[in-house]
Specification:
Elements (H helix, E strand, L loop, with lengths): L1 H38 L7 E8 L4 E3 L4 E3 L7 E7 L6 H18 L6 E7 L7 H11 L3 E4 L3 H8 L6 E5 L4 E5 L3 E4 L4 E6 L5 H9 L2
Parallel strand pairs: 4-5, 5-6
Antiparallel strand pairs: 1-10, 2-3, 4-9, 7-8, 9-10
Length: about 210
């Protein structure tokens, strides 16, 4: 009888130990699943600024119109700075802008957004050429430029830098490669880098 009692007690202890092991395994697996889930979350495309940055008065031109700070009011504006002789990065970024334009139009947001490409190289890029270049990627993209002073007035509040070195033997143009997202109040509300997934951008933007 005493032996039977010991066996029962030992069995109960073993069951308790196995039960504790199973609970421990369950907790560990749950933690792993949480880590894996978090690890597979897609990184945000847009860096939203809080507080937003205010723009100042400026005046740029396209082939047929003047674009000022007032042109920013009442709708969102996506801005990209570049130049026409840019070998590959600017065309790739403009293709992404065109993709975003088409996706947002399909989602019903097309009439509420300006798409703007600003050339920082007005010495070589004529208004006609800039307009044709931008429209080649998508008719919704407006090509603009202006004097160095006006370009700086627009670019500085957006955190965009550029430098043109018009050397005859080595003409160079350097500029920040960042999309600026300006809200309907004319404030820099966010920014994002080329190489993003347009589908992810549209998802973030339309559900903000």
């Amino acid at each position: 009888m005493e032996y039977a009692t010991q066996v029962i007690q030992a069995t109960a202890v073993n069951r308790s130990r196995w039960f504790a092991v199973l609970i421990g395994l369950g907790v560990a697996l749950g933690a792993m699943l949480i880590v894996l889930t978090v690890g597979h979350q897609r990184p945000a495309v847009i860096e939203w600024l809080d507080p937003p940055r205010h723009t100042v008065d400026f005046e740029l031109r396209s082939e047929h119109k003047v674009f000022t700070q007032r042109s920013l009011l009442g709708q969102w504006t996506i801005v990209l700075f570049g130049f026409l002789h840019c070998p590959d990065v600017c065309p790739t970024a403009l293709s992404e802008m065109a993709d975003v334009s088409q996706r947002l139009q399909a989602a019903g947001f097309g009439k509420n957004i300006n798409y703007v490409f600003v050339s920082v190289d007005p010495g070589r890029d004529s208004l006609e050429d800039i307009s044709r270049y931008a429209e080649y990627f998508d008719p919704s993209i407006l090509g603009l430029t202006g004097s160095e002073e006006q370009l700086l007035r627009f670019s500085k509040p957006l955190g965009i830098r550029f430098k043109v070195t018009p050397d005859e033997d080595n003409y160079r143009v350097a500029h920040s490669l960042t999309f600026s997202l300006i809200d309907p109040e004319g404030r820099l509300r966010g920014r994002f880098r080329p190489g993003f997934n347009p589908s992810d951008f549209v998802e973030e933007f339309t559900h903000r």
